[in-house]
Amino acid sequence: MSKTYRAVTLPKFGAENLVLTERAVPEPGANEIVIRLTSASVNYRDVVVVDGTYRPDMALPIVPLSDGCGEVVSVGDSVTRFKVGDRALPVYTRGWTNGPATQEQRTARTLGGPFDGVAREMIVVSEDNAVRAPATLSDVEASTLPIAALTAWTTLKQAGARPGQWVLTMGTGGVALFALQFAKLAGASVVALTSSNDKAELLSNLGADAVVNYKDTPDWAPVVRDITGDGVDIAVETVGATLPHTLGSMAFNGFVGVIGFLGAKQAPADIGKLIGGCIRVQGIATGSRTNLEEAIAAIDAHGLKPVLDAGRFSMDQLGAALERQISRAHIGKITIDLT
Questions:
Q1: Residues of the chain with pLDDT > 70: what percent?
Q2: Would you list the DSSP string of 228-267?
Q3: SS3 call for 329
Q4: Do 56 and 123 belong to one domain?
């Protein structure tokens, strides 16, 4: 067995600076497991971590990427939750088992920065910072879950999604597609925004009850209200800059889960609509390990399948994978082969 493994490291900000390095194979501590990672996936967060705009004060070098899956190859003497041969996912936020996150967990205990991430062949984590992979998904499919699926699940859980409600999703990125699928599992109806007819067909096939092309209809809030009657009960706001339109599409007592800033970090808000509509706006930062285990149980029980982008890259092509994420040409999750 080799005494080293490969890892992609970022010695200074910029995708052009990503380098493939060798590291010593880790030994687990008493409560730790070593996972041989086989697949990883890309989130928009990885783009802004690597280019330095997310946390320009982050200490480097780091190993990027947050979401991966693989097989447990060794365990510490005190480990009880895993055994060698189990398929496992490292959790994104270390130490966040249940309930709300602490500020320290949110800012200082996340994979892919400031902690080393999963763009590598092996990772050692506490057994409490990993979950079993879904039995119904391949490693590639399972590698898409720790941020995208968890964020969608947490948003709908905090919103209290249920039958009879309308949910608004935006685009065909990972969180939006998981939100669509989980909303349908909850019995809700979904109106999805997209930019093309091809993507509209995919959204319909996944269960969207209505699809609105925001390029054809830039002022889409009135259209969404017409479709839903009184407006949407839950919005999964992945763009950020669209918040004014989102507020205009909400039903009374609606919930807006703000989970991303693909468009911009700044957006004007109509305070009158917030107050008059008793709208709750909540920032969502992924979720706990328990939330992820709940999402995985639902995936296994209902046979839900992540949507994988056609882009599948090798470790030494991570820069190209990030470029595809930036281009927004992808549909679903971009994945990285770590074998």
A1: 98
A2: HSS-EEEEEE-SSTTHHHHHHTEEEEEEEEE---SS-S--
A3: coil
A4: yes
